[in-house]
Amino acid sequence: MTPSKATREQLREHNRRLVLRMLYQGEVNTRAALATVTGLTKPTVSNLVGELIDEGLVVEEGLGRASGSGGKRPTLLAFNPRARQVIGVALGSERVSAALADLAGETSAVHVLEPAVAGPTPLRPGALGTTAPGPDTAGPDAAGMTKAGMTKAGTATTGTATTGAAAVLRAVEDAVAALVPQLDAPLLAVGVAVPGRVRPGTGVVRRSAVLGIGDELPLGELLTDRLGVPVHVGNFAELCALGQFSYGLGERTPTGTLVSMTLDDDLELGVVLHPSGAHFGSELAGPMIEELHLGWSAFKARAAELVRERPDALPWGERYLNVRRAAGDGDPGAAQLLSELAAALARPLAWVVSVLQPANVSLVGGVTDLGEAFLARLGAEATALLGGGALDDVSLSMAYSNRLGAMGAVALANRAELELIA
Amino acid sequence: MTRSRVNDSRRRADPTRSRADEARSGGDAARARAGTAWRAGAGRPGALVALLNNLDGVFQRSVLQGAGEVAAAHGLPLEPVALGGLSATEVGTLLDRALGTGRAAQGAGGARGAQGAWVARGALVLSSALRDADLAKLAAAGLPVTLVSHHSAAPGQPTVMFDNHQGVKQLMQHVVSDCGRRRPVYIGGDASQLDGRERELAFRDELLRHDLRVPEGHMLVGGFTPDLARRALREFVAAGNDFDAVVAADYLMAIAAAETLGQAGVRVPEDVVVVGYGDGPEAEAAGVTTVAADVVELGRRAARQLVAQLSSERAIGGRTLLSTHLVRRASSCRARAPSDLV
Lengths: 422, 342
Fold this sequence. Notes:
Chain A has 422 residues and is α/β, with parallel strands linked by helices. Chain A has helices at residues 8-24, 31-38, 42-54, 148-151, 165-179, 219-227, 236-247, 287-292, 296-309, 320-328, 332-356, 371-386, 404-417; strands spanning 58-63, 75-79, 85-91, 96-102, 107-113, 187-194, 197-199, 204-207, 231-235, 258-263, 267-272, 279-284, 360-364, 395-399.
């Protein structure tokens, strides 16, 4: 079969996206420069830029400097990130969060589907890297105390299960529908972060133990049909990495290959390769992980075990933050718990460092509430496994954000629609 | 004594009354006003109602302004009904009369009252204006409801509010990481309100995240009322307590705190950094650092949510959290570049 030639429309669309990408990346900002960089003729560039201006995706921003030889000052062009919006949805077993953002990733609203309220009962903190808002029982100072007025307020709940294909589809639809009234610009696309295994680039979820999906589910296709906009699906950890890569890692934008280790319901790894920007990720499941006792359920069970052994351990409840505090106060049980977790997590960290040699490894999820001291202990454990100096070239950090999954889904949708994926 | 820029400001905040203050001041006047508003036809055919504690608070006025703009753009009147000062029984009776308890029917135009009169097509419920039982009553009547800074146990009643955890996190990150302060005092809001509870919880969690040990006595009660905040901080300072930052649950209390510190000879921000949640022209005038949370915009967003429900086949619950961002002013230190992911 002879490959068909690109049609005129396809060629035009390709050129249009090329021009848009150049402006999005901020590499050029005049029509003349666009023509030089893309190799397109000046009339073609002018026509394409005119279209993009009509669609609101590009704006004119005054006049630049004339060239050294004088002449007319060029009109400066800029990508308009507010011309479209995207919604990123992060799915968890007990919480669904969705972020509404513009094309630069600036978030205007987040919708959370979870019937939790501020109340006296500690909630499960692990889901999607968020910390439950419930206060703890009384303790000796401000961080641990619960005021009488607060204990009377509201009731706590453990959330609504989001498991099974039908429930997952409904949850995404609901999260998107809840944010649609808040749109300030046309909705370009939706991204979805799924804990589990996702077939790269297809939108097909191969399995998700967390969401109760055992058979392949063409989630992207089904949602695209239902929502009427393109829906892109990725692994949760993969998108956490992409979110950090796209919108910053704390205060800095990571350089070099980035690996996100998300420890929530399960342990997952997400990778963004440098310099290509290619990204992938998956859950680490099965007996290997069970043996390591990783994941919030395992941690909580171990914490409960400690409390049974010694009722005065963890007096403020079984939250990561409280375990950190108790360890800081010298509680031997809490310290032991952190040691066990650091030792267990150090093994997959050592594998990651050995195999991928990343410049950045970022810990993501509820576990980040354990703080920098835990991170240092984790690094020391991994170094002990690998040998001295093994982590010298690795920046080990924590991503303290409960929006990372949703923002990663925003990044996925943006990149896919603007064809920024290498 | 070195006076701070904050306290040298000639453009002091207008004396404003907080939500809690005004809710408490209801009494007979509020009772009369509420009854009048209801009898005057709130909830007439096709109208949206805003059920709130009072009509005079900064928060309520701002929400009504924003919500009114959106309602008007959709050709819908928005009629406020003040319930402050009414007893729970009186509020319940009002709702019973309006909705026809147990016999309300959902029609194309809204819920039908017991007397056959059409009531509102939808309701915005602000803060703690209604109890859970009242909200359940509205849900049972099939009336579309959007809550503003409140939570409902009834399914399908969504909330629109500011992201309290994000905002407090931004304030604390600024105070601790940017300004290097580690002995903060917290001036809390009204614990009967969701915003008050959530912000305090968020503050306590941030103490843990920053490994700060703060005595319980550093948790002052402000009740979203500048006068209460002023009094609590004055007593705290007079007692000789050691602190280097004030984090207030709203910006009006933060302004009151900055003024109080200035009067006590405490330099802001050199000796004590002052920050507060939310933002408004008063904070700008007083030079107080805040996290921006535009209450008029909150009203717009809530109204958008409610209007969308009118044509929706099913009500979707959950919370829509509006983003906040740090607005650094003279009462604190220079901020680092903001992170998109906080």
